[in-house]
Amino acid sequence: MNNIIQCFEYRRSNQELLDFLRYDRPCSSSVFSLGRINNEKLAQLIQATLVLKQEFAENCGSTTISAKLFELANEQLKLMNRLSEGETVWITAPLHASAAQLLRVGTQLDKMASEQRDIDKKKKKKLRGDLEEERFLEKCVRTIHTSFKLCLNDRNPNTRENKKWGVYFFTNLELSIYKRLHNRDMVRNLVKVLESRVQELPTPENALQSHKAQLVTYYYYMAEFYGCQDSNFVRGFEFARKAWLNSRLEGGAQEDMIVMLLVPFAILARKWYPNIQELAERYPRVAQLYAPVIQCLRNGDLKSFETWLRQNEAAMLRRNLYVALVLIRELVLIKLLKLSFRFYGSRSIVPLNLVTAALLKSRTHKGIKTVTDEQLDETECTLANLISKDYIKGYLSHSNRALVVSKTNAFPRLVHAST
């Protein structure tokens, strides 16, 4: 126990302190009087941690934990927050260890509660009241947010000792909770706070240079926010690319998640699509999912793309990628128009009935005999939208029912294969 006290006296963190904070690590059996500790806050922390360990040893197991364990872990983090107010950057490591532990307990308890609700539904058991109980994750994020603010608002003039270096650890914890709670508003609020304080904070690359896993996690969450929630595919691509480059590049589920974002963001932001064979060698699950999309980008097949999107709608919605894939449809459409343009001899004036017939055939995979005025009007609207987005260099001649395109680079933003 003396070693634990010395960590706070000499302001240094070590593995012994981190192990002491964990509820599942037994403590030394030697007798120690808390009255010998001059720091009352530290004495309270040690006492709370010992009770936390006792609760786990007596009432919990490897697969089941108690709600009391959560309350005790929450109290431990609150005490750590109080201790951290006058401390320097060294405290962020044990503070993060306590916060991550609270998150694990809250996650497991919410999972157990969800399983119990499923059992109750099968038994058609009536639940009292109309309001659901507050989830454990909702409780723990409030305490973790206090840890985040302690780091964010540290005014220590010594930049090397400032707790701002620990901001990104708690950012990752909060973002993981908001993702589980499907709380997009809180994700946006947290990112906006970081953006507003960017001049005061160390860069994530500097703050997390010794914590690669944390850095990759941060990049992934930022990619997810900007690309999936903010529809800023350029920034989403930049963060997804950084996450991929800083990962171990050994495959696995985590890298699959990164590449799952990287492929559509690269298509939309850089107009690149991957070599599907090379992708399949390293990320077969991702390649299997996106192979039909890449094929449609190459041949302009609208029907096949829409069939794929309909079949994978639930998966794309679950990953918050549905909007991105809907926008990729425009690029499939552009490819179809370019193929039609070449078929017509690359002339600068393309009749709308030719374009309309190509669109209808691509959508239905059936031969087209006649084209109606309504279909021509719909094609005009589609082309006007693409021209306004700079996908086509040209203009529409309504009186002549024709598309007039530039003689040079008529389709400047077409997707191409990456090398």
From TrEMBL:
Family to which the UniProt record says this protein belongs: Belongs to the CSN12 family.
Domain of life, per lineage: Eukaryota
PANTHER family, A to Z: PCI DOMAIN-CONTAINING PROTEIN 2 (PTHR12732:SF0), UNCHARACTERIZED PROTEASOME COMPONENT REGION PCI-CONTAINING (PTHR12732)
Lineage: Eukaryota, Fungi, Dikarya, Ascomycota, Saccharomycotina
A single MF term (Gene Ontology): double-stranded DNA binding
UniProt xrefs under InterPro entries: Csn12-like, PCI_dom, WH-like_DNA-bd_sf
Gene3D superfamilies: Winged helix-like DNA-binding domain superfamily/Winged helix DNA-binding domain
The PCI domain, residue ranges: 206-410
Protein name as it appears in the record: LAQU0S04e09604g1_1
Signal peptide per UniProt: none
Organism whose genome encodes this protein: Lachancea quebecensis
